[in-house]
What does this fold into?
Amino acid sequence: MPEQTYLEAIRGGLHEEMSHDPSVYLFGEDVALGGPFGVTAGLAEAFGKNRVVNTPISEGTVMGLAIGAATAGLRPVVEIMFIDFITLAMDQLVNHAAKLHYMSGGQLKIPLTVRVQCGISGTMGAHHSQSLESWLAHVPGLKVVMASNPADAKGLLKAAIRDDNPVVFIEHRGLYWTRGQVPEGEYLVPIGKAVVAREGEDLTIVATAKMLAATLEAAEELSSNGISVEVIDPRTLSPLDVETIVSSVKKTSRLIIVHEAVEKDGIGAEIATQVQQEAFYYLDSPIARVAAPFAPVPASPALEKCFVPGKTEIIRAVRRALNR
Amino acid sequence: MTQSKKTGRKQQSPGSSALDRERLLRLYRQMLKIRLFEEQVNQLYLGAKMPGLAHLYIGQEAVAVGVCEALRRDDYITSTHRGHGHCLAKGASLDKMFAELLGKAPGYCRGKGGSMHIADQDTGNLGANAIVGGSAGIATGAAMSAKMRGSDQVAVCFFGEGALGQGLLYEEMNMASLWKLPVIYVCENNQYNEYTSYRETTAGEVAARAEAFGIHTETIDGQDVQLVHAKSLTLVERARRGKGPAFLHCNTYRFHGHHVGDVDRTYYRAKKEEEEWKSKRDPVKLFAEWLQKSEMADGKLLDQIENEIATRIKEAVNFALNAPYPELDEVGQDVYA
It folds into this structure.
C-alpha cells in the first residue's frame, strides 16, 4: 500500500471518481489551477476545463448552480475554499440542497458533494480558521463527513461522490501534508460508520479530524502510565454512528469528546446527550468535552496556540475523569 | 468552455406570430385554467379549507402560458412562491395540484411541499421556491447540466421583480453569460415587492441590469399572451442553438393581494389603479376579445371552454378534499434519498 499525503489522497479520490463516472464535475474558485493548496492540481489537465470548472468568487451562486446541475443529471463536486466562506452559501445549502428531496416528496435527488476545508493552521485569523461542522450537522437532509487521515479521506470522498444526497466533506487544512497508507483503486469508506482507532479499557475518547492525532498521542503517553484509552473517530457526524460509541462506553464507563470547534453547542453536546440516553447507568464519571473556547479564532500565534486543544489538555481531562 | 456534441431530440420549428387556431385556443385554455384554478384556491381559503398561505397568480397568466407553451416537456422551469400558474402552464395536473395545496397524500410532493414548493419532475418543474430569487441557481445549474450533457434542453427561471434585490441573481447571470448557458430569466414585474412599489426599491432600469452582463434582454407587455409567446419562442430557440441566455422582462400586474389574506390593499395601492388594470389590462379578457374579433372563436365556444374547465376544476378540488392526509410516519421519510 503506497504512502500518500492527505491532500494527495483527496486528489486521488477525485481523479478516480472522475474517471469512473463522466457525470462527475468539479466547480470552484481556482480549481482548474489546483486551488490554493494544490488539491485539484492536474485534474483540469487530465479531464479538461469543461469538467474542472473555474468559477467566479460567488459561493452562494456556485452552490446554487451545482444544486441545479445535480437535480438535472450531473454529480457535481463543489469546492468552497474555506469553511468560513460557506456562510455565503448557507441559503442554497440549507434551504435548497438539504430540503429539495423532502419538499418534493422524494422526486428530486441532489447527488452533490461539497468539499470544504476547515480548521486552525498557520495563524490565518478568524475568517480562515473556523470549524462549523455542527451547524451543518444540525440540518436534516445534509450528510457531514470529516476525515482524520489520508485513507479515510480517499474512501469517504469516493463514497460521498457516489451518494445520492448532499454530502459536506470537511477537510482539515492542518492535515493536508500528513502522510499515511492509502489503499489503491476501489477503496470506499461507508458514510455513517465510526471506527475504533485505538482499543483501550479505562476511558473512551471520541475525537474528530485533526484532534484524532492529538488524542492518539495523549493515549500513547497515558499508556506508559498504566492508563488504557480507547479512541474512536466518528468519521461521519451526520448520520452519527452512536452505536459504536455507546458500545465502547459500556466497556470503559467514561467518555470524553474532543473537537477543535468551540465547545458550546458543538457536536460534543450531541454525542454526550445520545450516549447518556443509551448508557447512563454505565457511566462512572461525567461526560467531559475538550474543545476550543467560546471566541472567534485569534490571529496572534500566541493566542492561537492556547485556543487549540492539544495533548496536554486531553491528558488533563483524562486524569480528571479517572481521578488519577 | 466548449459545447459538447448535441445528442438531444430534434428542435421544434420556431413559431411565428401567426399561430394556427388550435394553438391560439390552447393558449386561451391554459390561461383560463390558471384563472379558474386560482379563483377556486381563493374560495378554499375563504371557506377555511386551505391550510397556510397562497399567493395567487391572477392577472399574470399570460406570462406563464406564453413562456411555457414555447417549451418542450423535457425543458426545465423553476418557479416562485407565486407558482401555481407556472406549474399548471408546464403541464401539472389539477387534481395533484389541489391535493398538494391541501397537504394531502396524493399531492405532487405527498403534501410535504405545499403551495410554495410544488415540484413535478415529469414536466421538468424543478420546484417552486419560497426564497425570493432562490431558484436562480437551480435553473442556471439545470441549464449547465443540459449543456454539459450535450442535450438541447432549455431552462426557464421565473421570478418576480422583488428578486432584483437579491445578489444571487446577478452572480448567476454573470456565469450564464460567460458560459453561454441555455437559460431564460423571466422577470415578472407585477409592480410590487410584496407591499412596496418596486419603484421605491429598484434603481435604474431593470433591463439595464441584465444588459450589463451582455445578456440579450427584452422588455414587453406581459398582458399580451401572443406577444409573450412569440418572444419566448424566439428566445427559447436562440438558447437551444447555443446562443446563450436571455432576460425577458414582462410588465404585468397582481390582481389580488400579496397573498390570499391581503384583502384591504388601499394602504399601499390605489383602488383606481387596480380597477384600471382589471378593466383594461386583464390578459384573459383581452385575449378572449381578440379571439372573437379575429373570428378564431365565438362567444359560444368560449363559454363551452369555460364550462369544460370549470367542471374539471370542480372534479379536481373534490378529489383533493376527499383525499387522505399522508400517514403520520411519513414525517421522517424522504429526508435522505
User: Anything to note?
Assistant: Residues 21-46 of chain B form the longest helix (26 residues). Chain B has eleven helices and seven strands.
